[in-house]
Amino acid sequence: MKRKELAIKIFKEMYENDKMSQWLGIEALKISKGRAVLQMMVRNEMLNGMDIAHGGITYSFADSALAFASNSHGRKAVSVETSISHIMPVREGDVLTATTKEERITKKIGIYTIYITNQDKEKVALFKGTVYRSSKFWFPEEEA
Amino acid sequence: MKRKELAIKIFKEMYENDKMSQWLGIEALKISKGRAVLQMMVRNEMLNGMDIAHGGITYSFADSALAFASNSHGRKAVSVETSISHIMPVREGDVLTATTKEERITKKIGIYTIYITNQDKEKVALFKGTVYRSSKFWFPEEEA
Amino acid sequence: MKRKELAIKIFKEMYENDKMSQWLGIEALKISKGRAVLQMMVRNEMLNGMDIAHGGITYSFADSALAFASNSHGRKAVSVETSISHIMPVREGDVLTATTKEERITKKIGIYTIYITNQDKEKVALFKGTVYRSSKFWFPEEEA
Amino acid sequence: MKRKELAIKIFKEMYENDKMSQWLGIEALKISKGRAVLQMMVRNEMLNGMDIAHGGITYSFADSALAFASNSHGRKAVSVETSISHIMPVREGDVLTATTKEERITKKIGIYTIYITNQDKEKVALFKGTVYRSSKFWFPEEEA
After folding, report:
1. What is the pLDDT of residues D4-39, one digit of tens each?
2. Residues in chain D whose Cβ is within 8 Å of chain A
3. Is residue A93 very low, low, confident or very high in pLDDT (cuts 50, 70, 90)?
4. Number of domains composing chain A
5. In what order do the strands lie in the sheet with A109-117?
6. Residue A98: its chain B contacts at CB < 8 A?
7. Between A129 and which of A82, B67, C44, D110 could a Cys-Cys bridge form, CB atoms 3.0 to 4.6 Å apart?
8. Cβ–Cβ of A60/B59 closer than 8 Å?
9. Interface pTM (ipTM) of the complex?
10. Is B142 part of a structural domain of the chain?
């Protein structure tokens, strides 16, 4: 199996069991080795007491993107430390895109930046995440 | 109105319109000037593809605590930059507590750390957040 | 005075009094409104107990770049919250370049990402910083 | 050799070769397994263009504390991701204390918070750091 096909196979396996990403309504635009581009729409139930999207929505969206990108290499990876800057308010009906960038990957650690943009291509949030790459594989039979 | 009563009044006003905090099932254990202690239970729909709570759940919980604590002074405050370390896996049925600590507050900026613990008093996440304090008040009539 | 000339004038004023940036041996490659590109060389006295550059060196270099970029608009700005990911070891003799990117600027807040690269164009560190923009100006007479 | 003695032995070995910590003038007040309390004084050459300590000084001080605390277990550890909030200005002549807290340690990852206070016991900075713990030991012969 080619690396891109494996990345997609892992994404499907993860997404199928990822109830939170399903609740967010995440759709994959692109999945490949080390990379994910995702989309979602902000619904009314995602707003906070100031009538803008709760900070947890853009964070959750970025954290899903981190998980999909960092696991796409085959090795199971878990988020260790993450940060997010909320750049612009996000509103109901906004269609958000998360685009990952793999800054660095070693055997044990991966570092990613993720930009979230809205339908007008404005940056609404900037996320940085570090994952720990375990010694377990999603599909050991594919790693020969 | 005393400052503690005002803090509670602001919390109620915010929470009533905060659909995301309602979805999380957040309950306030303590609200006072500069401080919030909150509780929530992790439900099945909050899990990710590894069958543990999605990182966005503990983040959202902490971010709500940040909002309630930092707005409790009367001035409207918005999150600018936040980070979270995921310390231990969180599972379905876990009852989480978020406890805020106001590290520093100036006229314009507030800095908070927030620990999230589980029912066994184990730390599961550590959050740090910076807010910008605007010149708008929740209840201008109370600020005389 | 044009904005670019003002940015350079502010940089000179800051750098002249910035003993730490002088100790680091920072040189400006480009300074303009909202942007700074800087260079420095890693000296023996900057190493830690593992014979690589102390994490404080790349941080200090990035923090200087943040200060120069965020103050270049005319308004005095101070760093509030910053984070850095150490991506690759840095060694004695390495020539580092810091390149700033202004992600967002409002009247009161600025958010910047800064990449540090070495002489082989490898990313060695990734920095994110938030500044608070005060109501004081470097040269009030230029702001008419 | 007891764990505390080993922690001190590792600190001495690290400090002896750590030119940056020496330049900062760091002194150890307490070193034990998983913990370091350090002190330093801010000198004129550590100031920035606003006549306060450069943000890189408190960062470097905290990063040294992170290194000493996280390496004290015997295993060589390197900083991966760190953040610092600058809470109060630091001035020439200030005597700073860094106190580490080990939030979490697994075989591969350690998470620490570090408070920096001044001579008046005021918090001036709050640091959070994640290290990767390698499979190399400082003194393999002590690990039997």
Report:
1. 899 999 999 999 999 999 999 999 999 999 999 999
2. 80-81, 83, 108-109, 111, 128, 130, 132
3. very high
4. 1
5. A27-32, A35-41, A95-105, A109-117, A123-137, A75-86, B75-86, B123-137, B109-117, B95-105, B35-41, B27-32
6. none
7. A82
8. yes
9. 0.95
10. no
